[in-house]
Design a protein that fits this description.
The protein has 12 helices and 20 strands. By secondary structure, it is an alpha/beta fold. The longest helix is centred in the middle third of the chain and has 22 residues, at 155-176. Bound molecules: 6-O-phosphoryl inosine monophosphate (IMO) and magnesium ion. 6-O-phosphoryl inosine monophosphate binds next to α4. 6-O-phosphoryl inosine monophosphate is lined by residues 8, 11-13, 38-40, 126-129, 131, 133-134, 225-227, 230, 239, 241-242, 275-276.
């Protein structure tokens, strides 16, 4: 058993894509199991940068099979766009990409509904990526208005069903937003039937496929999207995404029980970022936050929004590590902190006069949390060329050791730049 999972322990954007890419050559199958094109996974090699959103990172290596499993929500136009972009860069995408026939489909009304909902909430908006992710998952949970990829291959039933759904959606959207122009069910049906034809060679029962390859002792790599603190059940609700983006989602999203996974790798940035709304105790609304944003190029891959930046929060990431059940840590973007004189790590929260290391279950309590910081000296040296743990400056070693101690897990990988070779394996 040598399957692995890569899970973000913060609010997403932990550079999971780089770790998945590094591990692909030790695996046979890469599996995306939740989220949709709200994710933005960046991979750099051979002087090229690839940004993937729905496609698993494994797609960049044609010898690997990549699976978009049942728990993912799929915008077919976005998916086909990504596939053609890769093909245009001479990366073949064929039978090596499998798409679950049980995955749910994002339609234009999902995107329209999300825009209306977000616009109506002003400063209290969730700050979503506006890709129709939450509204699609909502329809999946309520079932009556949901369409799965497999439904697209029964055109008559699909057309009739979509007609019924679009009629209702038009009524709702018109009531919520009088300027809304009704959608044409027939036109959407034909458009989506066209997408279905283009995707046909990829669509299959991925759960059956995954169990077949497990029986053949193939090695699976599970690629988490978003992060543990954005998990619908366990994250900072309601400022979360609509899927199980902690380790909890692997089983439900792929149909593969966790006992088939031998290693869960928790990915953390050496600091913290967040996009969208919600409390962020260690946020730095000052020149240090701006410095981190500039050096770390902290702008959203999907939406281009500037990311909120702050010190590493060991209370939050420690909670993420516990709910996701990770075995070890991969610390990313350590090089971004290289110019700072002093670096801080949040070790506890003070909430209403009480100091706690527990992560609050309610965002109102998190919003009142004042971080208790440990201060460490900066290393003030370029570390992007370091390739061995022993070659890090002592202050950088001390920083890595503090993260490990506070989260209670060993650090196995440290990343000091976007390229594959800017990686230090600690064991
Ligand atoms: P990767 O995989 C960071 C955030 C959005 C918003 C909230 C809900 O690149 O780490 P949604 O559109 O999912 O309903 O938005 O979740 N969010 C992410 N933040 N990285 C991501 O993915 C994210 N995907 C969603 O900014 O706050
Ligand atoms: Mg991202």
């Amino acid at each position: 058993m040598s399957s692995t999972a890569v899970i973000g322990l913060q609010w997403g954007d932990e550079a999971k894509g780089k770790i998945v890419d590094l591990l692909t050559d030790r695996h046979d199958v890469v599996v995306r199991y939740q989220g949709g094109n709200n994710a933005g996974h960046t991979v750099a090699f051979d002087g090229q940068t690839y940004k993937l959103s729905l496609l698993p990172v494994g797609t960049l290596r044609p010898s690997i099979t990549s699976v978009i499993a049942t728990g993912v929500v799929i915008n077919p136009a976005a998916l086909l766009g990504e596939i053609s972009q890769l093909r245009a860069r001479n990366i073949p995408v064929g039978k090596n990409l499998l798409i679950s026939d049980r995955a749910h489909v994002i339609f234009p009304y999902h995107i329209a509904e999300e825009a209306v909902l977000e616009d109506s909430r002003g400063v209290n908006a969730i700050g979503t990526t506006r890709r129709g992710i939450g509204t699609c998952y909502r329809d999946k949970a309520s079932r009556s208005h949901a369409i799965r990829i497999g439904d697209l291959y029964f055109p008559d039933q699909f057309r009739a069903r979509l007609d019924e759904i679009v009629t209702q959606k038009n009524t709702i959207l018109k009531a919520l937003s009088p300027a809304f122009q009704p959608l044409d069910a027939g036109q959407i049906a034909e458009e989506y039937l066209g997408y279905a034809e283009q995707l046909r060679e990829h669509v299959t029962d991925t759960t059956a496929f995954l169990h077949k390859v497990i029986a053949e002792k193939k090695r699976l790599l599970f690629e988490g999207a978003q992060g543990s603190l954005l998990d619908l059940d366990h994250g900072t609700f309601p400022y979360v995404t609509s899927s199980s983006s902690s380790g909890c989602g692997i089983h439900s999203g792929s149909g593969v029980p966790e006992r088939h996974i031998s290693k869960m790798i928790g990915v953390v940035k050496a600091y913290t970022t967040r996009v969208g709304g919600g409390p962020f105790p260690t946020e730095l609304n000052n020149e240090i936050g701006q410095h981190i944003r500039d050096v770390g190029r902290e702008y959203g891959t999907v939406t281009g929004r500037p990311r909120r930046c702050g010190w590493f929060d060991a209370v939050a990431a420690g909670y993420g590590a516990r709910i996701s059940g990770v075995d070890c840590l991969s610390v990313m973007l350590l090089d971004v902190l290289s110019q700072l004189d002093e670096i801080q790590i949040c070790t506890a929260y003070e909430i209403d006069g009480c100091v706690t290391k527990d992560f609050p279950s309610h965002v109102a309590a998190l919003a009142r949390a004042k971080p208790v910081f440990r201060k460490l000296p900066g290393w003030k040296r370029d570390i992007s060329g370091v390739r061995k743990l022993a070659d890090f400056p002592a202050a950088a070693r001390a920083y890595i050791d503090s993260l490990s101690e506070l989260i209670g897990k060993p650090v196995e990988i440290v990343s000091i730049g976007p390229d594959r070779d800017q990686t230090v394996f600690c064991s």
